[in-house]
C-alpha cells in the first residue's frame, strides 16, 4: 500500500525520502516513549515491569522469525530450539570461559546463527510444509543433544544454573535492573531489522518470498539469500535465548520447547508478516491474552467448581488458539496492516468512510 503523506510535504533529498521518522514531533514522541520505558521501574508496578521485560526479550525472537518467514517466506518451527542454543552458549561461556556478559551475548548469537545455517540447508530443496517439517527437526535434535551429550558440561536434564549479567560493575539480578538490558538489545535489533528490510538483502528476500523462480531468473542466488535469512533468524533467536537464560537464572532442554516455537509463529501472524511493527504488536497482544487467561483461571474455577486444575491451565492455549483463528479469518494481514489503514483513514479525513 502506498504511503500517504500530508499535503505540501515533498522529498527534497534522498536521505529525506528514505527517512523513517520525518517530523521533529515524531522524534520527540519517540524519545519520550523510550524515556518512559526506561523509567518504568521508577513508577510502575513490579508485575508491569516483568511483563515489559518478558515482552522485550520475546519480540527479539519474533523479529528474527519475521526476517525468515515474513520477508523470505520460509516457514520455521525451530525458533525456540535456536533460543536454547543461544542460552546454552552464553551460559557456558560465562561459567567455564569466564567471559563477561557483553562478550558472551554476541558470541551466543553468532553460535546460534551457525547452527541455524545447518538447519537452513534443506531450504534449497524443499519449501512450504516440507520445510516446516525439516525445521521442526531442530526442535527435537537440539534438546536431545543438550540432554544427552557432554553430561559433565551440560548437566543433562538438570540443566545449568546461569549467572546474572554484570556490566560495568552493576549486577542485573532483578527485573527492575534487567529491563535496561532487554530494552537496549530490543532497540538495537529493531533498528537493524528495519534497515535490513530496506536494504538490498531485504529486497532480495522479498523477491524470493513473492516468486522464487522469477527472482532466480533475475540473478538472485536463492541458496545464498535463504541461508542468510536462516542465519539472521537464528542470531536473533540466540540473542533472545541468552537474555532469557540470564534472566531466569536456570536453563535446561525444556526451557524453550515446541509450544514456544508455535507461540512465536502465532505472534508474528497476529502482528503482521513482513512488517517492522508486526512483531511488536503481535507479541504484546498475545502476551496480554495469555496474562488474561491466567487471571481468568481462578474465575473459571469459581464459576465451575468441578473444573479440574488441568482444565484451568488449558485456558492459555485455548485463548491463544481462538485469537489466532479469528485473526486468520478476519484480519489475515495482522495488526500492522490495520494500523496502516487507520493512519491512511486519518490522513484522508473528512473524505474517508
Summary, kept brief:
The chain is mainly α and 353 residues long. Helix content is 72%, strand content 2%.
Structure commentary:
The chain is globular, with a radius of gyration of 21 Å. Strand 2 and strand 3 form a beta hairpin. The protein is mainly α and 353 residues long. Helix content is 72%, strand content 2%.
Question: In terms of topology, how is this protein built?
Answer:
Elements: H1 14-18, H2 24-38, H3 40-43, H4 46-71, H5 79-95, H6 101-120, H7 129-136, H8 138-148, H9 151-154, E1 160-161, E2 166-167, E3 170-171, H10 175-198, H11 200-210, H12 212-217, H13 222-248, E4 250-251, H14 258-271, H15 278-303, H16 309-313, H17 315-330, H18 334-348
Antiparallel strand pairs: 1-4, 2-3
Helix pairs in contact: 4-10, 4-11, 4-13, 4-14, 4-15, 5-6, 5-8, 5-13, 6-13, 10-11, 10-13, 11-13, 14-15, 14-17, 14-18, 15-17
